[in-house]
Design brief:
With 128 residues, this protein is of the alpha+beta class. Helices cover 36% and strands 30% of the residues. It has one domain: Kinase associated domain 1, KA1 (TATA-Binding Protein). The radius of gyration is 19 Å and the shape is elongated.
């Protein structure tokens, strides 16, 4: 029985002694569009499609600009996505309940996954 308890403790030690999640940078992320055939409309369509699929709410701004907002429970993350036919940039705009630190330009680490999912999803959509 003692050996079993030891195994359970060892197996769960990564949960018990897990490091706190590192803050996520909110510095702008720029990605290239790796398609010679992509038009401004193609890039916009890819961004809107991926954002919708990932539950981001979007609002078109000027040509080449989309505001996107993600709400997860009490957390909100707002970004501006500017784009051309050759690249797009995801820029932090605002957040709620994500521990924004203006001097370090960081938010709670969970936002990193949300931003990565959005960025990688757009890249995959444009690669089709």
């Amino acid at each position: 029985m003692l050996a079993f308890l030891f195994l359970v403790l060892v197996a769960n030690s990564n949960v018990l002694f897990a490091q706190p999640m590192r803050p996520a940078s909110v510095k702008p992320r720029t990605s290239e569009v790796y398609s010679n055939k992509a038009t401004l409309a193609d890039v916009e369509k890819a961004i809107l499609s991926v954002a919708s699929r990932l539950d981001w709410m979007t609002k078109k701004g000027e040509d080449g600009e989309i505001q996107a907002k993600l709400i997860v429970r009490t957390h909100e993350l707002v970004v501006t996505i500017t784009f051309s036919s050759s690249e797009y940039t995801i820029t932090y705009k605002d957040s709620k309940d994500l521990k924004y630190n203006a001097s370090n330009q960081t938010v709670h680490g969970k936002a990193r996954k949300w931003l990565d999912d959005l960025d990688h999803g757009i890249q995959k959509e444009l690669a089709r």
